Amino acid sequence: MNKEKVSMEEFLKKKTDDAEELKEATWAGIEKELFPKPNKQFLWVKAASFVAAIFILGLSLTTHKGQALIQNIWDLFEEEKTVQFELEGQREINYAKLNANQELDYVIYVDESRYRLEEGEESDRIVPEMELGPQYPEVSMEIEPVTGSTADQEVERIRQSLTDRDFRIIKDSEIVKPVDGSIVIASEAEAGEQQWDSVMEKYYVTESDNQALFVIKQKYFLEAEEGHGVRFDTMLESFEIVDE
Amino acid sequence: MGTDVERKLIQKVKKGNQKAFKKLYDLYSGYALRTAFAIAKSEADAADIVQETFIRVYRSIDSYDATKPFKPWFYRILMNETHRLLKKRSDPRSVIIDVETDEALHPASSIQGEYEDLQEALDQLDHHHKTVLVLKYLHGFSEKEIAAILDENQNTIKSRLFKGRKKLKQVLGAIEHE
């Protein structure tokens, strides 16, 4: 059977060699269908009405650099996408909108039916659209670019900070989902002493291939773990560092 | 391609990253085009099939379960698109090479005698047997993988491979005795 196998493989490969030459033309068709290039004027209209206009504020719209960056972002990411949440066995589908920070070095799709992105000086925060009552601990997801440090150093800093504040580390490991990197989860309560409103903190440390480092910190309470905790993680799956 | 690299790439595609999708295209399009061409026998059809396949992949990437291998999932879409296009054309072209067309494009010098016999044998097979052989020999898919791609029972695939190979063996045996 070896001769047959070798002959068949050789035959099929030889007879289909020319098909490889169709790669570029085929890609052009795909690109045209999936990523049609809007004209510049349309881009400006889109950008002006776009919820994530926050990132435009940080740019000089009249500079070539600013225009190039906007073009780049639009080329890379869709404005809106469907996000499927799996909450306590129930599936829920929502539309999430593209958001980006001022420096355009990350993007995330935010479920704006429930959350909003607040822009800060050094970090951005995603918080519930409807304010929770005063009886509830803080619920937020903070996205912070970090410079002058390594991923390992950041994880160690987080561990130290939690220990200093008497938090109990529940999980400390490497993960690939929702982001590729490290996770540290901690609770303010001792094991067996947790209450519905026990504060939880979850950290992700992730970096791009170009070593752009981000720390993502989620704050919620025990009872919100399956709600806000899951929603944050689902949105975080769309998180991407844009540093190319 | 390492599974780790592939996993990261697909994770980026799931996030809507166009550059990652292009990289995925670069990795998979070559053999996808070969497969489509082998079955559809037309370069234009092969390009259409692969184009539709990648558009479908991009639009349904969220439904891909990242805990499972990507390749069989991808090829299942490719085979569905191939069959859909051939059905649409109502032209149950069997597989591989249309001898007359091929020889017109590539004069006889490029076809060795052994290949001509192999081609003749393949032309005697029906569509199902030829598809299975292409997946087996062009890609090296296992019977289990082919069964998953074609959504068939593994025994059915085993049987199709057996029958297909039997005919090929007869031809190859004849060559050896010439």
Q: In short, what is this structure?
A:
The complex is a heterodimer of chains A (244) and B (178). With 244 residues, chain A is an alpha+beta fold. Chain A is built from seven helices and eleven strands.
Tell me the radius of gyration of chain A.
Answer: 23 Å
Number of domains of chain B: 2
- In terms of per-residue confidence, which ranges of chain A show pLDDT below 50 for 5 or more consecutive residues? 39-71
The number of distinct structural domains of chain A comes to: 2
In the CATH scheme, the class of the largest domain in chain B would be Mainly Alpha
Strand residue percentage of chain A: 25-35%
Order of strands across the main sheet of chain A: 4-5-6-10-9-8-7
Question: What best-fitting shape of chain B do the alpha-carbon axes yield?
Answer: globular
Number of helices of chain B: 9
CATH class of the largest domain in chain A: Alpha Beta
User: How big is the Rg of chain B?
Assistant: 18 Å
How much of the polypeptide of chain B forms β-strand, as a percent range?
Answer: under 5%
Largest sheet of chain B: none
The number of E-state strands of chain B comes to 0
The CATH homologous superfamily of the largest domain in chain A: Mog1/PsbP, alpha/beta/alpha sandwich
Overall pLDDT confidence of chain B: 78
Give me the number of helical elements of chain A. 7
- Listing every helix as H and every strand as E from the N terminus to the C terminus, the arrangement of chain A reads HHHHHEEEEEEHEEEEHE
Percent range of helical residues of chain A: 25-40%
* Average residue-wise pLDDT of chain A: 78
